[in-house]
Q: What sequence folds into this?
């Protein structure tokens, strides 16, 4: 099962999306993207929980 997430899924006006084999790998990619593109976003535990709730399995 491949896991998928996009910024639009979490309500961001951004066309980025990614996939990974594990949630851990996916969250790593999300963190890297947020650091580069969403510098004003504070990645709190609430934000992480919201992102995790939006992860889709494809
Ligand atoms: Zn984005």
A:
């Amino acid at each position: 099962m491949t896991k998928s997430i996009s910024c639009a899924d979490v309500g961001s006006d951004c066309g980025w999306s990614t996939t990974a084999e594990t949630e851990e790998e996916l969250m790593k990619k999300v963190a890297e993207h947020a650091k580069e593109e969403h510098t004003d976003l504070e990645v709190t535990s609430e934000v992480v929980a919201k992102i995790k709730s939006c992860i889709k399995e494809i």
